[in-house]
Amino acid sequence: MANTGSATGRDGLDAVAPDMGPVPRREWLSLLGGFQLVCGSVEVRLPLNAQRVLAFLALSDRGLHRPYVAGAIWASTPEERSAGSLRSALWRIRTVGGPLVAASDTHLRLAPDVGVDYREGVRTAHRWLDGSAPVDTARDLRRLLVSDLLPDWYDDWVTLERERFRQLRLHALEAACTRLTAQGCHAEAVLAGQAAVAGEPLRESAQRALLQAHLGEGNRPEAIRQYRSYRETLRCELGLEPSPAMERLVSHLPVR
């Protein structure tokens, strides 16, 4: 998120101004598809505990109490030991350059000049959902919304946020597919629909959006193949049939 100004809040940390658009980043933190930290043009290696602190702070846009951060990340560890682990992780983070973390005596926050792909993904998703995303940004939609949040991490706080982000991006991909179809951008619509279906093959709203994209493009054979594949998967996995709404979409096609 771009930093266009700051003020010191009650937590002793700089308050982050509203995002006003992309700016060049020296530090970039990637959480979608896996953890990666780049400072300048160099990928930085950090121990897992330091990665977890950066990731935890990146999932919040406000200052967090130090004991809360320590307790959430090291939930099964005694308070004194978790506080020590947090201090050690922060020290390791400081050694890579920075600043990556804004810290006061009581609070922590990811430094406002650190770019985070997850945060951009959330903003992108909301823009497609509220209709404010320009159609020519569909490339960003695919880049940011095709990967899960930290897919190989199993901490409870990651699992919860990963599912929340997954649902958000699936809704955004469906909305994008429908909007792009309506505007005649069929190639982009199909790609968005395919990404939504890949994220959850049994999600009928995604399947319907993709079918409409194929039909809008005049690709009846693709629509038929997509419907038949979904119907077979639905029968095998859940013993169900497509809904009446789905059947109406293909009622004029030889899908039997």
Describe the protein's topology.
Layout: E1 6-8, E2 14-16, E3 27-30, E4 36-39, E5 42-44, H1 48-58, E6 64-65, H2 66-73, H3 79-94, E7 101-103, E8 107-110, E9 114-116, H4 117-129, H5 138-144, H6 156-182, H7 186-199, H8 204-216, H9 220-238, H10 244-249
Parallel strand pairs: 3-9
Antiparallel strand pairs: 1-2, 3-4, 4-5, 6-8, 7-8
Helix pairs in contact: 1-3, 2-3, 4-6, 5-7, 6-7, 6-8, 7-8, 8-9
Helix content: 40-55%
**Approximately what portion of the residues adopt beta-strand conformation?**
5-15%
Proper CATH architecture of the largest domain: Alpha Horseshoe
The CATH H-level homologous superfamily of the largest domain: Tetratricopeptide repeat domain
Largest sheet: 4 strands, mixed
Continuous helix count: 10
Rg over C-alpha atoms, rounded to the nearest angstrom: 22 Å
Regarding CATH, which class of the largest domain?
Mainly Alpha
The largest beta-sheet arranges its strands as 5-4-3-9
- Assembly state: single chain
Number of strands: 9
- The 3D shape can be described as elongated
- The ordered H/E elements are EEEEEHEHHEEEHHHHHHH
